[in-house]
Amino acid sequence: MEILLKKEDISEKPPVRILAVDDREDNLLSIETILEQEHYIIVKANSGRAALKILLQQHDFTLILMDVQMPDMNGFETASLIYEREKLRHIPIIFITAHNQGEERMYEGYKMGGVDFIYKPINSELLRYKVSVFVELYQKTHQLLNHERKLLAANRNLEKEVEERKLKEEKIHLLNEQLLENNIQLKSTIEELDRFAYVASHDLQEPLRKILVFSDKLQTKYKDSLDVEVAQSLEKIAKASARMQSLINDLLKFSRQTTVNEDFVSIALNPLLQDVIADLEVEIEKSSALISLDTLPEIWGIPSQIRQLFQNLLSNALKFRKKDESPVIRIYSEPWNNSTRIIVHDNGIGFDPRYADEIFMVFKRLHSYHEFEGTGVGLSICKKIIDKHSGSIRAESKIGEGSKFIIEFPTIKVRNQLTDIRADKVKIV
Fold it and tell me: CATH topology for 12-122?
């Protein structure tokens, strides 16, 4: 904390108040006349008791000019009573006397707290000079006291800031420790969830297969003897079981993205996409779809995951087609900064652009399964694959105007740099 003393603080001077005590009015007037050009504030008292009465209410005087010879209570006695009060002991007293008091008498005056003597008749120049000396001393003392108060206040503020900073640092340290602990727990939890998802999905396969097999047997064996309601119920069981099997398969795929570790290799996209299109041949023929494939560049990735990425995107494009129009899907690329951009563009039903980010959330569906089959996992798997490849995926669409999925893969050089940065971050943590 930087402490600065302003110029006005250093030059600041308190008003000069002088208490003149004398039993004669002409002497008080004389003192007032001599000091008036200095712009001092002169407060007059015509007796020792009057002076004490004033000092009971006011104690901010710079100096007291006290006549020694006064009736009832002389100057020494008055000075003695004044200095009995703690708040008045800082005020210097100059005694004014008409007689040479002698050393013993002067010693008594100094003992009472007096700082100097002036003899009558008063020498105006001498009075002004002596008063100015004590005024200057008072002002400097006042400035030093003010500076001391300010420094003490600044020191208290500094100590408070240091203490607050220590508390903040301790809090940050505790939060960092808690964050590290939470990260470890989170990593463990994610691994457990992945294992659970895989094991649970795998274990569900067997009873589900039995449901499908036996429901199919019932439909086949008794199809001519079942009444309409039972036949419809069996059909619903078969369809619900098929949807459940699709969901389990998607969960298995989703969990494997974190458990399977394959090496990145250079991938020629055109042959890979031709294989994906061949796998979707039945659905393509069924929907009379037209898929055009431009010449695409090679990328750096995991082949099985890239295959799954494009299979999910093409399946979506075929699924969300218009009822009265055959699907038209174009896959092409375009240069973009330090990345390879691949676009999958279809003429399907599209979606509200407000949901462009939400569609990549797991189990997020914009349509009910009565309209379109599916589990809502496909695009979330795409997002997970792209994240693992240090790339990005986003969607552009309007209702009724088709959809465009834009995928960006970093070049091999950029991806290696990203991998190095991530490794450094892990080391730092």
Answer: Rossmann fold (3.40.50)
